[in-house]
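Standup, Tuesday
Yesterday: got the pipeline producing structure tokens again.
Today: sanity-check two examples.
Blockers: none.

Example 1:
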Amino acid sequence: MHLAREIGGPEALSFLSRIPDGHRAGLAAALVSAWDRFPGGEYARDVLSGLDVRELTISVPGQLAQAGVVGRVESLSVIRDVPAEEVVTFVDEHGVHDLYISESALKGDVSLAPLATARGLSTLGVGVPSSVLSVLFDDEPLRVPWNQKADAHFRLPPLPHVAEMSLIAMPADWTREAADRWERLTHLGLFGPAVRGLSAIGGLPALTHLVLESDDLLAMPPNLVHHQVTHLLVYVTRVPSRMPSVVDLTGIPAAFPSLTHLILRVRAVGTAPIDVTGLERMDGLSVRAVGVSQADKRLIGVEAFPKGRIRYE
């Protein structure tokens, strides 16, 4: 299998097309990853036809149409600029649950409104590959970097069936009033420029888990209040060479009064100080500080916490 992929060409394609159906299912991931060695629709038709795959990446023009012959697809990544209508058709026809649309696929003012009809979609990542956020709270590392200076412009209506969503920027048509129509959105990740829209998430009715990662994260917005958020994961990456020099998290009690779990993932060196003063007064709050020790001078206000309330890792 691996030798055929490396060799490529008509003979290798013929060999792969003769793999019995009973064996192809167990080789699905390898067969899909070999597609880039056999450009064109012939490989999809002769090798991938009817095959259920866990992950599929669309990276060249016309590939999504060629992929129409495969069976069910659990996770779809769209790297190329593909019309949203075509993506939705594929999502519906192949039972896609997890969709990632890369920043490079968001050219110009893109409307993702057709996604409103993709009822089977449960997780969505726009510009951020790690759309399945729940695993990040279980110590899964953030796998792929994204563009902190992304300049993505897109429109996205409320998708009442989506439960987890990651954004590299806030949708141009996002409003506080429309937030209550995201009926099942329990996990939200705001990355890079998207953090600037943090004050507009207060109306999300089902939100319980929030991930924040951005050089733009300075403090909690003063007008943000969300009573359902219980889990907050903050990636601290800001460097002190820019002003202000402190990542101010003292506004967390006012913004998220029901918070029970706070995870701070701090880059090992070079990040700005983090002020958690006052968080010790939040009843039932447990804190994990990953990447720092108890003696780290970058943590401000930790001396007021009762013993054992902060776990250093």
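Example 2:
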Amino acid sequence: MPNALDVDMYQRPYELCLTDSYQFDVTVERQGNHFAAELRLSPAECSLVIRGDLTETRRTGFGWEDIDHLTCNGYAGTFFLYGLKFFSGGDRTLQRHPAPVSHFENRYRVSYVVHTRASLYRQPAFYFLDLYSPSIGQWVGSTHTQDEIIKSHNDGTLFANSSYAFKEFEQHVDGLGSISIVYNPVSDYSSEKFSIGLSFAPVLSLSFEIARSASGAMDLVRELDTLFAFILGSSLELEKIRLISADIQRMPVSLYYSRQEIDLEKRGYSFFPLGKNLRYDTMGLPQFPTEVFSVYFGLSKDERLRFSKYVRYRALENPEERFLGFFRLLEKLCYKKESFLEQSRLDQLIERAEPFLVRYFRDEKNVRRMLNRLPGWNFSKLNTAACISSFLKTIPNSLRKRWVYESRHIQEICQFRNDLTHANSIEPEWHDIDRKAKFIEALLVARLLKELKISEEAIASIVPRLSGHSLAEPPPQIRITPALR
């Protein structure tokens, strides 16, 4: 599809693709008045510029405030805009007599957009959400289900089946609905090229138990983007997002938002591939348990945020920043409390000793401050190094023995973290920082996989597939044997 910025203003895309850029002339309504606006959508940024003339009887009511949602109409259809952030604007006087006329212009950044070519005058609700992504196809691999599609096409029975008849799996998620990998085959025909073909790329599909608003759908897209960025080991490449609404039967509805463009050259293999129903299983990896989706969406918002932070830290270029980010997350996930003394008996002793200590030191305020801190000190038996070492011992030995670091090195790594944090006078080599960062990342990924209830056997097989995992392994031993004379 050509870049929409290079075509005329009367373009009418069937649906919006996240990899394309667009420019639309639209109108917006405020307080009974309509104003011209320009909507620009691109992977870098979505923006809206509203402008028009004002008189004593024609006012905007916009102001310079942010707008929660706004509906735009144009030749290309209806656009529902959400999360509009005002970032610049102004007005100027055009004339004062015989009646004052001024011109205004407001500029907004837009969080996301829902588009349909249908005419719609209310906020739609959605029952289905489909994500089209080449990354999903790579994750699924080559399966027997795809063979069934080709066989049905050759037999002439393919399109007699209902949409989404072919599925790799379907997983129920409490409070959400179901998540599945489906195929919706489409036949392509071109008389100009004298060709006919069939496309049936796998689609990640969500079916909601209860209709969701656009904001609810967008929240789920972001959660799935994070989860698959973790599962794939790299960013999810998205081409388009299709929404299905009971309010719009015949026209497609698409969701558009700006997201960082994916460097296709850096896209490698899937970290934890689906591994189900494979035509050829050449890797012998454990199958991805689809119950993970139920587990992930059952986590609290703060617990899911840890996956998002990991993905963000993984993308950092500076190895020091990566190391510190990974370490903070691992420290948080491994934290546990253990007391020196039984807390209930210590509380009883503090209560009995307080009057004596007050009389002895004649300083009631500081005695109470000191006693109030005793419970915290009592639970400081395990420091960060002890917590991480304790977790390290739970990892299968088959994985631990592959690493260059052992439990005895954890205290040294913790001190290394402190030196970097406090800018102490150390000058580590870059390869040493990279090695420690990769080791801590491997521990962190193992801990996050445990959060998803992945078995220890699967963790031992999957963690070494981390990109650059060899950095955390001992260098290969090279032996030179002298040639015989």
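Quick observation on example 2: The longest helix spans residues 430-451. The mean pLDDT is 86.
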